Protein 1
Amino acid sequence: MEIQKIDRFSKAKLIQKENGSVLVLYKMIPAFLKAAKPCGRIAVNRSENMRTSAYHRTINRKGESLAELDLNQDNCIFITLTISHEKYNNYVTMLNAFGNFMQYINRYTKEKNNQVRMIRGIEVQRKSGFFHIHTVLEFMDKPPTLSHKRLRSYWTLGAVHRNLKVDVYDIEGLLQYLTKFKAGSLKKDQKFLTYFPKGAQIIYIDKRLKKAKVSEYDLKSAAAHIEANSPKIFSRYHIYRGKDDGKLHTVIDKIFAFFGSDINITP
């Protein structure tokens, strides 16, 4: 980021974690745009599909919530659960199966005198249109031995893929990936709608997960840190509606800059 572009941002905040820091810069939104969101409380009809604008809002909001988590990557494993047949490719069926999967995981970890907390994200495979689940499991102690055979017996709808080691940059990138806008989620014949039902919980975050320390930060200092250290950067997008033309506009509204523990950023 160039210093001369800093006037395009309105504020910054610092997220301090055990294994590094995150600077979040909020971009100034042009005056001719306004947030494209419904007014008041609207009854959710789950037989209808979630709109693309609602999908954008959901992953944008959850992206910031995930960035504020302070996970212990040494105690985390990453698992992907897929669906193998059309008859299982249903949002409710998938969530029920995942609930059973987590019951088995909790029961097994309890036997090992351990506890588990989780993040769950749902995606749609672009070519097949099948749902699949990504989950990050954080254990209170060292992760127990979870063989592929055991995991496969817990998940009955398809294949299981696991990554038993996640380092700090991988975990930050993974959390951002879970809330990245994915074109596969949009219906091929109606791009303004997604495959998710209205009110779908695309991202679930266990409330027991540890939160990082969050504080306001000087905007110019934040830009200087980014220029000097070349951190890993993720941009977040949001949908706004033009006040005059009524059209939807997708714009960057914030960026996340991830720094390792070797870079000391103080409030």
Protein 2
Amino acid sequence: MNNYRRDLPAWGISLLINGVMLTAFHFIAWTVTSDQPNVEIVSVMDDVVDQESIFIDSVVADAVGTDGETLMMAPALAAASVPQAQQAVQEKIEEAVNPEIPTLVEGDISLPENTDFTATFTDNKGTTDSISGGAAGVMDRMTFEIRQSVKERQTLVIWVFDASGSMKERRNAIAKRFEKVYEQLAQEKATDGLYTAVMTFGEKVNILTPEPVQDTKPLVSMVESIPDDTSGKEMVFSAVGTAVEKWRTFRKNDGTWNKMVFIITDERGDDFDQHLESVIASCKRAKARVFTVGNAAIFGQKQGFVRWVYEDGEEDFIPVDQGPETAFPEGLQLPTWGDTSDWRLNLMSASYGPYALTRLCAETGGMYIVADDQGRGQKFSKEIMRNYSPDYRPMKQAEEDIRKNAAKAALVSTADLTYNEKSGIRNLPVPVMVFAAYNDNVLRQEIVEAQKPVAAVDYDIKRLLQALEATEKDREKIREPRWRAAYDLAMGRLLALRARYFGYNNMLAAMRSSPKAFEKKENNEWRLIPSDKVDSVDVRKISEKAKKYLQRVVDEHTGTPWAYMAEKELRLDMGWSWQESARPVPPGMEGNNLADEDVARLLLAEEEEEQRRRQMAPPAKPRDRPKL
């Protein structure tokens, strides 16, 4: 036997050993349990096309602005269906926020109803294409897009016009270019497979061409004679949905057809919350690309202004819904103390179109063309703003991303509160800066009245700050420039506001406790003026932290709206000092021995006299403002 093994070849020994091992493994069962849940991946994306956002330097006719009103999409992070991996982040926010501000920050983002969360999005980098020339420039770009489409295959172009009065000039300017556009296409033999349809929208959707046509000459007068819709409603998404469904299967000849929808408007549409997701899905099924010629959204705002000229030539600016540029609120709506005259802060262009229309264009492979005239607010370089593109993914995806970072979630929650019209933060009282000091009792009485609203405001500001400060560590995990700029600016502005209110209250308390003596005997009035001197240690710490955040915004985000607002905050001193002056003394206020009830009575009489004088002034003639 020993001789047999010795004479056995090496390969035979190897075969024998491996055979024994395989036989043993055959009888061993391994069971592997996965911790990962079964995931169903669903998509309604039929066709993916690269897209761009195009930004035009010049406009057809109207002005863009805002009065700083509330954001339409005022969401809060929904607590339901939170994945385990994200639950800890949400609990961290709630633990830090809820005990301190139970009634002010809820920590939830509510999403619009009927939202299709299965929609996908082709990444949009927000690239820009500068086009000049007003209506001519716009139509040249449209001509290019139509020409490219017709080269590929037969094409149906659907023009969807906003029928509101503010759009009349723009509609006519574009209509006048119709004939030249189609003549140019005809010269290039690009109209054989081209059909055109026209419809309008306001409160209702109207189809002007029951069937698409090839002869476009009648379209010019058809568009110019569109009657103004005076309802003040813009059902743009209903119009696009109607157009796509009506002509989804349209074809005059065999073969594949392209479909292009051109929306001409100056607002964001009133029905996006009901129909945005379903219209996106319809457009994808029909392979219809959507293009919009509209106005830029106002930075962080819902409303803008459109210039309106009355028959007598008087000019007015009518508020219209033109934003926001983001799905969720990212910026706190806070006043700039001491600089209320600068309306430009609320008129800055976002450099992007409103979220809903821009997303519709991006999802369908079209583009949003910003037709923005000279504007009335600050403007920013398109090249710089390209790096600060809003998130155009479906809201559910964006929400999940926000949920993963406590700093983002806290920012959205606090910003949402400042958009509330009834919020104390939104309606901060204008602090009294001038105090009559005919005698010490008068001065104390005025200080008491001035301090009453400040105490409540300071409390609200502290609670908002606690929400953001509790998540400061997660701020370092934020990579997107837009979110970093928004978080730092929110912290800086809140801290600056806190420093000013806190310092203001301290100055009043000290003066009330021990009134200062005038250097000049003829003076009888004290004024609080901004100062770079801060006596209080607590106020100094807050102001130094505010400057740190604001300066970081300026340094890291130069040339953006965030840096512009941070610079304005830094130009305003955060401390206070007293300045004395003189005013006429009302009868009965002489002397320093008046009782408190006498002071109150005399101040009331002075206030009533002022009201009487105001009532005698002729009232301004009321205007019947149009609904645009």
Protein 3
Amino acid sequence: MAIKHNFIIETKKIKLRSQRIVERLGGKRHRRIIFLHIPKCSGSSINLHFKGNIGSGRSARVVLFNSMDGSAYNPAEIERARRAEYVGGHFGWDTLTEIAEGAFCFTVLREPVARLRSLYLFCRKLKPEKNAGKFPLDAARRLSFEQFCLCEAPHVRAFVDNAQARTLAGDYPLDRFPLESVEETAKRAIENLRRLDFVTVTERLDNVLPELTLASGTRLVSSTIRRNVGQDGPSPSETAKAEFKNLTDSLRERCIADHWVYEEAMRLDTARSFG
């Protein structure tokens, strides 16, 4: 059954990519698409959708780069991204402003505690040879969840310490965006969040997929991007409040700005869908 499903998806990808090429040859101009991919916020699922429409990461039409390895600040990669139809990867607002002209720009946020738990488990399981994103695997494997979140090592804090807010305020590596007051970081992040063309949250991604598809000028590869974890339980806002309330004071400091930015993302998502 899985083999048949994969065959259907791959066949549809070929059809969608071919349609886009034919449209381009016929004179249609597709708007470039830029996904500001915050680590552990449904990026793999989003990339599969857009690469399914546009092309693989090996094509000149798609650029995926990363702040942690420096590629998002490489002038040659920046120039490639300005010409690409789709740009994704773990980079921050500073890079986005270099490549965003004329593009449809969007991001996905995630309930902060759920993101930290996902990050921790991901780092514990990921094989080192597949660690293209430079995630802190060793720290996750030798530390408990709380120790990992409170670790002072700069490489760990880059992914943990209000990483969603810092990505939107500037970038997540600490050498690119040093830690400042959480209030100022959240304020800057929210201002930038409001400048994007489309904002949603991981917990609602399947529900808003048709909207994102229409807004970005793409076509559905599959009826879902990911399992909607919130559809049978509490609403995302209720879950976020409960998760955040149960944190220790020390852990709360590591995601307080993310919590504020996530709440704004929820508000923007709701206003767009029901406004």
